[in-house]
Design a protein that fits this description.
Layout: H1 4-18, E1 23-27, E2 39-45, E3 63-69, E4 72-78, H2 89-92, H3 94-101, E5 106-115, E6 125-133, H4 161-174, E7 178-185, H5 194-202, E8 207-209, H6 213-221, E9 226-235, H7 246-255, H8 257-270
Parallel strand pairs: 1-4, 1-5, 5-9, 6-7, 7-8
Antiparallel strand pairs: 2-3, 3-4, 5-8, 6-9
Bound molecules: hypoxanthine.
Hypoxanthine (HPA) is lined by residues 112-114, 191-192, 208-210, 233-234, 236, 244, 249.
């Protein structure tokens, strides 16, 4: 079980190495090269941060960056840790609580996801309006960290409405197509079956993926306003008659880099 002392030490290390920042951004699969756009940047490798887990998924570098994005100082996390890597949800969500302790006032989570909504297209970006935790587990199971938040946190606004509206406004201004929908979390690492994707659609999901939901729950618990954006890299299993693979996911994410970067940069500027 994670405790406040461990979190404080890890956050203290990041602050000592990189200084403070206004906003945190987590880069999903295939989106890691966004760190190139930071000015006055510096980073620490995850392995140098006390007790911080190291990511193993291909396309997840494992570096905690700080830099200027427009007029804002941001942290960018290049590489997230997934539950399917065999890590505990305390480890998966550790950076969220560290961001809170570091004084970040908003968090932006990005991911690659499969598109369940058959009227949308691979390559679309989606604002996560709400989510379904289909994993059967929850990152808040265990002793409650009272300093962070309540035992039974409300999840009505786990995806911050004001940040979502602001992001949609920026998408409109930039003429970027931004869908809005429900993200359903499967643990992975196997992709969903066609039957699971049909079930997801019946249950109200627009996208399926292997991350982000534990972080959204923990961010809501500690009162950190959070926005989630999915890059819908592929139609989910069974919609098209073709197998899924991680390389294609990363390549597809790479193809929409430009729109994705413009949208996040504009949203950060407007926050
Ligand atoms: N399913 C789950 N996770 C994903 C997918 C998918 O189809 N595409 C990218 N991440």
């Amino acid at each position: 079980m994670i405790d406040m002392e461990t979190l404080r030490q890890a956050a203290g290390y990041v602050r000592a190495q990189l200084g403070p920042a206004d906003i945190g951004i987590v880069l999903g699969s295939g989106l890691g090269s966004y760190t190139e756009t930071l000015e006055n940047r510096a980073c620490v490798p995850y392995k140098a941060i006390p007790d911080f887990p190291v990511s193993t998924a291909p396309g997840h570098e494992g570096k905690w960056w700080a830099g200027d994005l427009g007029s804002k100082r941001v942290y960018m996390l290049q590489g997230r840790i997934h539950f399917y890597e065999g890590r505990s949800l305390d480890e998966v969500t550790m950076y969220v609580r560290m961001m809170k302790l570091l004084g970040v006032r908003a968090l932006i989570l990005t991911n690659a996801a499969g598109c369940v909504n058959a009227s949308w297209e691979a390559g679309d970006l989606m604002l996560i309006r709400d989510f379904i935790n289909y994993s059967g587990i929850n990152p808040l199971i265990g002793p409650n960290l009272d300093e962070m938040g309540p035992r039974f946190p409300d999840m009505g606004a786990a995806c911050d409405k004001a940040m979502g509206t602001l992001c949609l406004e920026q998408a409109k201004r930039l003429d970027i197509r931004l869908r809005e929908g429900v993200y359903m979390w499967f643990s992975g690492p196997s992709y969903e079956t066609p039957a699971e994707v049909r079930m997801a659609r019946i249950l109200g999901a627009d996208a399926v993926g292997m991350s982000t939901v534990p972080e959204l729950i923990v961010a809501r618990h500690c009162g950190l306003p959070t926005l989630g954006i999915s890059c819908l890299t592929n139609m989910a299993a069974g919609i098209l008659d073709q197998p899924l693979n991680h390389l294609e996911v990363m390549e597809a994410a790479n193809r929409v880099q430009q729109a994705f970067r413009s949208l996040i940069t504009a949203t950060v500027e407007a926050l």
